[in-house]
Design goal:
This protein is α/β, with parallel strands linked by helices. The protein contains nine helices and eight strands.
Length: 216
């Protein structure tokens, strides 16, 4: 474990926030007379504004995202740890891991604090990047901040957009966690696990595919 550098997603990977996310997207859907299911199918792992631009292109995505994100930030009812998350982070040197999330900075800090996880030294949030997942910018920034190349990193993600971002960044290995999506939706990951409890063994047991070079 100590030889790996980890780039973790947050929601669905370290913190199970499905209840909160569903609650606030339901309010958004109700406000705009939209079907909720298609929104929930694409919102995980992406910035709120990017999701809104896709599902409701006639709306002001940035303004609507600000309302939705503020609601989520103030709501911690139902947040729980993904099994194994706390134990895994306890074993890691603080200089060997980072979080790359599509949520904004205040939301990320709020969720980590709500479940008792540490705020890492390197925390790349959706409001700090030009392009959100599935673009690799966030993971490439996090690797750079840790002083390493993405090619030595293990990306841990729960959503197809995040898996795609990790692969595009050129991560050594991409792990999919089936918190928000079934294994078949994460088929581009090198390893798929139900939670973080057995990640050590999974990394040791599985051969790793060669990742493509990062995009210029």
């Amino acid at each position: 474990m100590t030889s790996h550098v980890f780039l973790f997603d947050l929601d669905g990977t370290l913190v199970d926030s499905r209840v909160v996310i569903a609650r606030h997207w339901a309010l958004f859907a109700e406000r705009h007379s939209l079907e909720l299911a298609p929104i929930l199918a694409v919102c995980h792992g992406r910035r709120s504004a990017d999701t809104i631009a896709e599902v409701a292109p006639s709306l002001d995505a940035l303004a609507e995202a600000a309302v939705l994100d503020a609601g989520e930030e103030s709501d911690v009812d139902g947040l729980v740890l993904v099994p194994g998350a706390a134990e895994l982070l306890d074993r890691l040197d603080p200089s060997s891991w980072a979080i790359v999330t599509s949520g904004h900075l205040a939301l990320a800090r709020r969720r980590l604090e709500a479940v008792g996880l540490p705020v890492p030294d390197v925390l790349v949030t959706g409001d700090a990047v030009e392009q959100g997942k599935p673009h690799p910018e966030g993971f490439m920034r996090a690797a750079g901040a840790l002083g390493v190349e993405p090619s030595v990193c293990v990306v841990v993600e729960d959503a197809p957009a995040g898996v795609a971002a990790g692969r595009a960044a050129g991560a050594r290995v991409v792990v999919g966690v089936t918190t928000t999506h079934p294994a078949e939706a994460l088929r581009e990951a090198d390893i798929v696990v139900p939670d973080l409890q057995g990640l050590d063994g999974a990394l040791e047991a599985r051969p790793l595919r060669v990742s493509p070079a990062p995009r210029p």
